Fold each of these.
Amino acid sequence: MADPSYPIEGQIVLLAGTQASVPLDRLPDLLEQVQTYLRANRETYDREYERISGPREADYVCAESDHWDSIGTELGLSNREQDAVQRAHAAQFERDGRRLDRSEEFETTLEIRAVLAVSSEP
């Protein structure tokens, strides 16, 4: 189950934090910070990027491959913090692809796009 403030499941948060060497108590705050940013820019994302509906409380925005660099710079994230957040979003996208029986399509998307999990809750 995902935290209500961001659409990433707990197991994925643990894995992403470990892989990116970010303290596990720090990653939920980072995910919440990023989610606040994504919600604040929702109109831009809706207008400029492809959106994929997820099976849960998330929709996915498919942005240019270096988009996480822009978000990281805007929010002042370190390279490791940005990597952890990006990994979490990508892993949730892959998991939801399996749930929708669209794994191959979702994996191909990750090869060419940055994927952002945006909460469908207001």
Amino acid sequence: YRVLNASAIPEGQFIDSKKACEKLLASIDIDHTQYKFGHTKVFFKAGLLGTLEEMRDDRLAKLITRTQAVCRGFLMRVEFQKMVQRRESIFCIQYNIRAFMNVKHWPWMKLFFKIKPLLKSAETEKEMAT
């Protein structure tokens, strides 16, 4: 039930459980006549335990929803970065293909395409000779 008011019980300090229960129940908006403290137990009037359970469930639902929202936000930011990177890559590829399409019919480029395979064969012949 600490979820209902985490600031009521300080972290890192030892507090007797009875005092911790008293502080926690006092910090929650509940009528003080609805419960009593025994030596080792807290006694609730009818219906109060259900109310506390509902309050706790609501608080846990909010915390879980917030955690899910943060996780989904992180995952979508990562996905967005991937999409941006893919988009930039596509633009780079398109730019290079367009540039190649513009120069592939130049006479010097045609000559280069014919000579390039011959250069590899000449290189392999040199390696075989040595």
Amino acid sequence: MTGREDGTDQRGGTAYPAGVAEVFAEVEARVRAAVGVRLFTVLAWLPGRRVLHRAHTSHPEQYPVGGEKSVEVAAGWLERCVHGQRPYLGADRAAVREIFSDHELIDALGCGAVINVPVVDDGRTLGVLNILDAEGRYDDAAVTRAAQLAALAVPALRAVVARRDRPAAENPTQSGGPW
């Protein structure tokens, strides 16, 4: 991290408003304590661009901050998590393979189960917490615990979405600018 004169933090080549990275780190720590996690990411939903933007990661080499995924994910996942605002539980490797195109990397990290929890603010989906661990590690009780923590990410995701969900012509980060 590099503190900057403009009040932002630099993480993984992406500038964040001051405090955002710390909020995500706290959410990760709470999820780790309450649910358990090997791989943790926070994705911001940018509906204007129809992409998921990686705003936080526990594994920056494999999943760098700033990476983006188009919405072409497994059938039903986007509808369930983003539009329907309901968590997804994939309790085994087969479920992980069904959802993630990068399932081989996920498996190599020792992960074979996933919980995806939408982060919702005043009826609007801001993003998703992606919580992964060993196969069989998660059940419905773990999903409930994770969902109870999602609201902690609201202020940070609100800031990320506000700064990033603009057409490329209006967003300096889409053309190499600071955000």
Amino acid sequence: MENLIWHFFSYFGDISFWLGFSISFVLVYSLLSKKDRAKVEWILTDLIPVVLISYIVTIVLKFVFFIPRPCIGLEFCPPLPSFPSTHSAVAFAFTTIVILNLKNKKHLLLFVLAFLVGFSRIIFNFHTIMDV
């Protein structure tokens, strides 16, 4: 059960989650009225692009720094270099954009979610603390 929880947090930073979210959001957005579209347009104009850009930038940086992963001896080890953690970058990009757009202090709790995404990557031994 504990592993399942960490997989959940890890998946939140995974690009496949965000691609699915993006496609789903575009479909739902197309069905909304103009008034409702205005309320959530920031997701289309800010959130999705920033998440995708953070993903691309971290992939490029992985090959600039080319730091090997600490997962020696594990059955599965992601093939890309370790630093920086794409999952963590995506989670913190999401959190930052939500907080900037919603401007509500209770959304600061999303930083806990972003932290847990990074921590899950350390738990699975895919990253060191310096990566996240």
